[in-house]
Write the structure tokens for this entry.
Amino acid sequence: MKTKPLLLLSLIFICSTSWALDPVAPKSERAFGRIRVKTPLPSDTCEIKGKASQTEGKFIPIPCADMTKVLIGDYELRVKLQNTEWSKEVSILPTEFTEVNVVGFGNIKVSSPNPNLDSVEVLSLDGRKVREFFTKDTITLPTGTYNLKIKTNKQEVPLNDVVIFSNTTREVSVSF
């Protein structure tokens, strides 16, 4: 009867230690974690700024797509893409690996009869408004699928399932 609680306790101990990524990491490694940032283009640049006192206030460049060893803590990650900048807050935990995937960006250009007056409303697939712009403009959006509403002084034209691909310009024409 005494062996059952002992067996149960040893099973709990073995299972709980296997949940940790590296339970026997040397003390020198416990102050660090690793980060890898995946970006659409190799020319993109990545940098982090720590919120801890030792790195606060200055961005430190890190290589994109490579695993980089950094001190544990909270950071602001900034990625410079072709014509835009993307940022996110990340937490680096002891001996843990953090991977961040940066989505690509593409452009959309809508041609209409009155480019200075006609406007386009960009909606996500669940109906949330993402952006609004005049048809004379070309705008940058994250890659994905969107619904458009092209508004003229006479009518509203819906255009569903418009796909934006990374590093390309999607051109849409509307005529009446």
About this structure: The mean pLDDT is 82.
